């Protein structure tokens, strides 16, 4: 028996033992309420995908257990158990190997509230996007940045500071922005906040407007018309955002494509100060080619992985597979959101399926953009959009799911919200 076959056999046996206690009853209940999708065309949920499909705007419309905190552990923590009077703790259920990947099935969105809580430095239990937050003060970097677009077209920008408090940002210098077809999109996209949390950029028709959270100063970077919509941050310094020191002014740079909408191609790299550095070619690769999976949202790289392995960082992205998947009780499902992860060898794939639709309070289509990695390649963080918007954690390749925070202070059906996160974990 090969080493890989032995690992697969042990994984199967371990998953069977772990899941026998809770999975059967949970899946029986879920099947009675779930309305399965039979087509890859969504949806009853009202979700707009902006920035050429890159930024998801929310509107109304295991095997071995993993770590229990962002810091390395010397002992293996127990699998979460039921709290007296609350019933079983929800968890992911393994559905075997399909299309070259290990498939895990998340519980329904209604079960998220019962997930065990995982504390993340700088992230409070709830993030309030309501109007009236105090103005941002220079010197405070950000853990996340959000734009709330109201029905009347007014935008408000709310920053989650590194002190876990929320702040408003005055963006009166910005114009409302639309693409070449006249379709309105928010100026802060899902690529807007730098990984180190020091800068945030806003897209305009012919420029990027960059705000330095340390100095409180704005910089305008002129661009050809429309291409600023495809701008993204990239790490320039190997130590960017690590070690607890304030990030350097040039630790991250901005890549602006020469042609909007192409997955592979050249672009100009700028410092946040506006200085053009060079032309870089960015190559897109499919994380889950065997499933014909269509990507949504940013592709998240583990910022520490490149220093821990010669293979490079672990990678994760929200995707929409174009093939049938089989759930843990044998039903075939066509049309599901998934989060795809590849390990540092860029070969082993683990996939978390997140069922959407079917009832009030369910996840919306394109529900779950990846937030990032929690200080290493073991735990990936992801958003779960619906009438309730949460950030969840998954210990990759295991049954363990976590509830990290909930985003409140917006009105489903009236407000559209887009967010961007800095790298979490040790900084």
Q: Average pLDDT value?
A: 76
Total number of β-strand segments?
28
Number of helices: 3
Major sheet summary line: 6 strands, mixed
- Rg calculated over all Cα atoms: 21 Å
Q: How are strands sequenced across the largest beta sheet?
A: 3-4-23-22-19-18
Number of structural units classed as domains:
1
Helix content: under 10%
Strand content: 25-35%
Low-confidence stretches: 1-85, 238-244, 304-312
End-to-end C-alpha gap: 43 Å
Principal-axes geometry comes out as globular
SS-based structural class? mainly beta
Region (Disordered): 60-88
Transmembrane segments: 38-58
Keywords: Membrane, Transmembrane, Transmembrane helix
Biased composition (Pro residues): 67-80
Structure description:
The chain has 427 residues and is mainly β. The chain has one domain (3-421). 7% of the residues lie in helices and 34% in strands. The chain has three helices and 28 strands. It has helices spanning 3-19, 23-33, 305-308; strands at 47-50, 55-58, 93-98, 101-105, 126-128, 142-149, 155-161, 166-169, 177-178, 184-185, 199-203, 207-212, 218-222, 232-235, 252-257, 265-270, 276-282, 294-301, 315-320, 325-326, 332-333, 337-342, 349-354, 370-373, 379-384, 389-395, 401-408, 416-421. The strands form eight sheets. A six-stranded mixed beta sheet has the order 3-4-23-22-19-18. Strands 5-27-26-25-24 form a five-stranded mixed beta sheet, with no helix packed on it. Strands 8-7-6-28 form a four-stranded antiparallel beta sheet, with no helix packed on it. β12 (207-212) and β13 (218-222) form a beta hairpin. The longest helix is centred in the N-terminal third of the chain and has 17 residues, at 3-19. It is globular.
């Amino acid at each position: 028996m090969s080493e890989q076959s032995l690992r697969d056999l042990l994984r199967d046996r371990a998953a069977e033992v772990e899941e026998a206690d809770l999975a059967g009853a949970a899946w029986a209940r879920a099947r009675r309420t779930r309305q399965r999708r039979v087509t890859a065309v969504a949806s009853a949920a009202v979700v707009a995908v902006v920035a050429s499909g890159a930024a998801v705007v929310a509107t109304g419309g295991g095997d071995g257990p993993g770590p229990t905190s962002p810091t390395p552990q010397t002992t293996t923590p127990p699998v979460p158990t039921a709290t007296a009077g609350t019933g079983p703790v929800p968890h992911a259920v393994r559905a075997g190997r399909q299309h070259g990947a290990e498939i895990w099935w998340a519980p329904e969105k209604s079960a998220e509230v019962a997930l065990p809580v995982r504390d993340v430095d700088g992230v409070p239990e709830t993030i309030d996007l309501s109007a009236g937050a105090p103005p941002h003060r220079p010197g405070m970097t950000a853990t996340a940045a959000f734009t709330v677009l109201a029905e009347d077209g007014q935008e408000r920008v709310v920053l989650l500071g590194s002190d876990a408090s929320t702040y408003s940002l005055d963006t009166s210098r910005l114009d409302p922005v639309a693409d070449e077809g006249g379709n309105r999109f928010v100026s802060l996209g899902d690529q807007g906040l730098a990984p180190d949390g020091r800068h945030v950029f806003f897209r305009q028709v012919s420029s990027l407007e960059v705000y330095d959270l340390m100095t409180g100063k704005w910089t305008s970077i002129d661009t050809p018309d429309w291409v600023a919509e495809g701008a993204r941050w990239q790490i320039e310094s190997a130590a960017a955002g690590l070690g607890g020191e304030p990030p350097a002014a040039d630790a991250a740079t901005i890549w602006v494509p020469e042609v909007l909408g192409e997955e592979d191609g050249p672009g100009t790299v700028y410092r946040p100060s506006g200085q053009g550095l060079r032309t870089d070619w960015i190559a897109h690769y499919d994380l889950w080619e065997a499933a014909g999976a269509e990507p949504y949202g940013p592709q998240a790289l583990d910022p520490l992985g490149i220093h821990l392995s010669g293979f490079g960082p672990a990678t994760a992205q929200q995707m929409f597979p174009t093939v049938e998947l089989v759930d843990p009780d044998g039903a075939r499902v066509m049309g599901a959101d998934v989060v795809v992860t590849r390990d540092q060898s860029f070969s082993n794939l683990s996939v978390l399926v997140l069922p959407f639709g079917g009832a009030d309070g369910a996840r919306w289509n394109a529900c779950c953009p990846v937030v990032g990695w929690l200080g290493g390649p073991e735990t990936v963080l992801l958003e779960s959009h619906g009438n309730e918007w949460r950030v969840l954690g998954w210990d990759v390749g295991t049954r363990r799911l976590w509830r990290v925070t909930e985003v409140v202070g917006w009105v489903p059906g009236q407000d559209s919200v887009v967010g961007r996160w800095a790298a979490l974990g040790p900084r």
